[in-house]
Amino acid sequence: xxxxxxxxxxxxxxxxxxxxxxxxxxxxxxxxxxxxxxxxxxxxxxxxxxxxxxxxxxxxxxxxxxxxxxxxxxxxxxxxxxxxxxxxxxxxxxxxxxxxxxxxxxxxxxxxxxxxxxxxxx
Length: 122
What we know:
Layout: E1 2-6, E2 9-12, E3 17-24, E4 33-38, E5 45-50, E6 57-59, E7 67-72, E8 77-82, E9 91-97, E10 111-112, E11 116-121
Parallel strand pairs: 2-11
Antiparallel strand pairs: 1-3, 3-8, 4-5, 4-9, 5-6, 7-8, 9-10, 9-11
């Protein structure tokens, strides 16, 4: 399995970015997908997850109402639309695959992308 994340960059406070994660190697629609992030000196934390068919989502309290996770099973891609960005959103963002159901736990995912840097400047 390969997960290729892209779309990170430098953005000002209040701006928006859309991350993408293209998956290959096994049937994409069989697995929930998730985004996590890790800031320097901090543990990896859950951001958002989505069911196999995209019908249900799960968000951390810190991003709820600002971020939207979605997926396109025909393109084997999961997205993270990030709006109203804050400096505390600065981190490396990772996409993950492996859970059958959306989960906020790192241990429930066994495949990870390489990460894409998001920096929010004030």
